Amino acid sequence: MACRLFSAPLRGVVPGLKGDVVLSVRPLLGSVSPLSTTSTQAALTLEQRDKIAAGPGLEDFIREHNYPDEPEHLRRKKGERTRLRLPPWLTVPVPSGSDYTRLKKSLRKLKLSSVCEEARCPNIGECWGGGEGTATATIMLMGDTCTRGCRFCSVKTARAPPPPDPNEPQNTAEAIAEWGVDYVVLTSVDRDDLPDGGAKHFADTVRELKRRKPSILVECLTPDFRGDLTGVAEVASSGLNVYAHNIETVEDLQWLVRDPRANFRQSLAVLEHAKKVTPDLVTKSSIMLGMGETDGQILQALKDLRMAGVDCVTLGQYMQPTKRHMKVSQYVTPEKYDFWKKVGDDLGFVYTASGALVRSSYKAGELFLTNVVRARQEKHQSQASGDS
Description:
By secondary structure, this protein is α/β, with parallel strands linked by helices. It has helices at residues 46-53, 58-62, 98-109, 115-118, 124-128, 168-179, 199-212, 229-236, 254-257, 264-277, 295-307, 334-347, 363-387, and strands spanning 10-12, 21-26, 31-37, 113-114, 138-141, 145-146, 156-157, 183-188, 217-221, 242-244, 282-289, 312-317, 351-354.
């Protein structure tokens, strides 16, 4: 369908008539009215006129080119197909700097994957360019190809990815030692093709890191291992400090957002079991906002996480990685993120990170968690010495 605004008529098909109907556009009202037909000069029926009047108006053809930056346009309207315009608080500078370049070269040299790049994280410039001793990266173990296909994620997918590199635990430890950081996050794609889902690979990497640098704090952001709690126990008892697993979204939207093999209750069971295996572990999860969830659903998800013994939670804005992925339903305002931080604190989370650019692995959060973990270690050592 083509239309030259204000001058030429809009030619289209009217249901119930044979042939084309020529419609005139009323620029000021955004409505259309019948002029004539190429097949008949008979007058249109009242029903046909109503169908035409209910059709698209002028504003539907120019909205994308004249989209006002008003608060009501932070939410997708029902039936709307265009992508929401990015609000100003979600713009970030292009990543650069010596630390950013150094870390990127190190990853390439050792053939390691980073979820910072694969998931197109907006914080990569901040986390990778933080200066000596503060730059952080989330290493993605077992390759860059996932066996699942979630609608929010830009990581590559395949039924049978290449086998994991057996030297990866050593290479990862070498890279971390080279960076000189004190806190590292290990994550992975879902590997449903492996008998244990990759749990042993996680555990071996943690042990190798701790062997090379006992003082380093290790966070593992794991998959759900298909609900196999044996894999959860393998990782939880490997010597790590923070066990993270993301519920991603509220329970009622799991079917829409995540792969069918993942689900809300299965994720809660993973977090609960990790704490049961190693009570001193700090457990953590993350929720993406802007997918169509309600305030009540968010509140219930936070309560469920606390019931599962989760210590820390992060809330951040979902951002559509490519046109093929799920569209953003709403851009949540900074004020609303402040509100959810207070709710999380009131519910008893040790740490609540809530902001548009907050992600499950986020440097500011890692620096805070360092203090939490150190405090727990000191308390445990004090209790152990007292018992002896």
